[in-house]
Amino acid sequence: MVFLAPESDGGGTKGGIVTLCILFIVIPIMVGIAFHYWPRTAMGKRFMLPVPEEEPAASLHPEAVDGEQLKGQN
Description:
Mean pLDDT: 80
């Protein structure tokens, strides 16, 4: 529709190309920036699920980590 609007109303070829650049370049960049910073805001923290801290693998299975106990066993 911007391409069809008269140049005096901000349309035409120049207005259409500017609109396409905004739609396909500027808006995706702005959305990416918003997704990067949104979880750090107060409202973003309310929406995000807490990520549990992972325990190291050694604390989950200490017997599997220590191979010295298994030496010489059949």
